[in-house]
Amino acid sequence: MSGPLAGLRVIEFAGLGPGPFCGMMLADHGAEVIRIDRKNPEGLLSNAAGEVWNRSRKNIAIDLKSADGIALVRKLCASADALIEGFRPGVMERLGLGPDVLLADNPKLVYGRMTGWGQDGPYAAMAGHDINYIALSGALHAIGRKDERPVPPLNLVGDFGGGGMFLAFGVLAAILNARRTGQGQVVDCAMTEGSAALMVIMYSMLAQGRWRDERGVNLLDSGAHFYDTYETKDGKFMSVGAIEPQFYRKFLAGLGLADDPEFAAQNDQSRWSTLKQKIIAQFKTKTRAEWEAIFDGEDACVTPVLSLREAPQHPHNKARDAFVDIAGVRQPAPAPRYSATPSPTPQPLKQAVEDILSSLPLSAAEVQVLIRDGVVA
User: Fold this and answer.
1) Which of 68, 129, 141, 314 is catalytic?
2) Which residues contact 97 (CB under 8 A, 6 or more apart)?
3) Phi/psi zone of residue 203: left (φ > 0), alpha (ψ -120 to 50 degrees), beta?
4) How confident is the model at residue 351 (pLDDT cuts 50, 70, 90)?
5) pTM value?
6) Annotated catalytic residue within 130, 159, 221, 228
7) I need a surface site. Which of 71, 82, 252, 263 has the fewest CB within 10 A?
8) Alpha carbons 118 and 155: distance in angstroms, whole number
């Protein structure tokens, strides 16, 4: 075992979106994460073995409809530092695996719960997806261009940023507390609240009168001519983030607009739209590769917009080994990095029924009975 989380055992109930992303985060950094799958998974869950976000876990399928299966899960959780689950409120309780039961078995257990709306409130039992959760937090309203519809930012803000990462943080914070106090607890992680927390700078600027509550007219939402993406001659794109004046000057110089007096008033919002049109026209005079050559290595905050296939091939990403090949699949490497406890190399999801069961207080005969009777698979 290696990585800063080596020695932690986490039980993950199979799911989609933020739950497995949280499990990946923990496993990437050395935790032993045991993923409990359904015996006969359907739909997206049926492809678990090939999913990158399920990497570096041990896998066991358990019949959660049988008393023996529930008893086995309780044994696993009694051996763990934490569990993470992403069912609707009440599902785990109906299975006989609610916090009261599992914390009675293991008082130091951290019980991580991942939902869209939280464990209570008017919407707690209502279905939803990333787009719905970030709609309610104010995040979706802020993303998009002026006079156009809000643009879903993939599922980065709700599922992963506001969900899985917040759950990973909450679980680790609660584990630290449990090690100090001997007392576990429930971590109630809601994507609506996590995505709202990610918007804290916008809410702060709104309160200060520095952010207008509309799309595409502000500093960071494509309103500013010096913070946006621009199409090049060959139909590709460059990103520009020249906020500070020294970077802004280098941006204009590289673009060939340093002598245009209209660009002198960088922060005059009444001029942003007009200046943007000039920049649009200028970027279309050269290909992306030509603009890359001009701005590469310059403190102008201008970089190419790379596709998913291009990003792993960029020289900086290659120099940093930002992407790795695991079982023939190119994927992002674990992040962040550690000087003293490097994270283990990711591995595909591993079926490890006997390995997992042998770590529990079960005899060899009991293990064989569980396998024979189909309690595990």
Assistant:
1) 129
2) 70, 73, 74, 77
3) alpha
4) confident
5) 0.93
6) 159
7) 71
8) 18
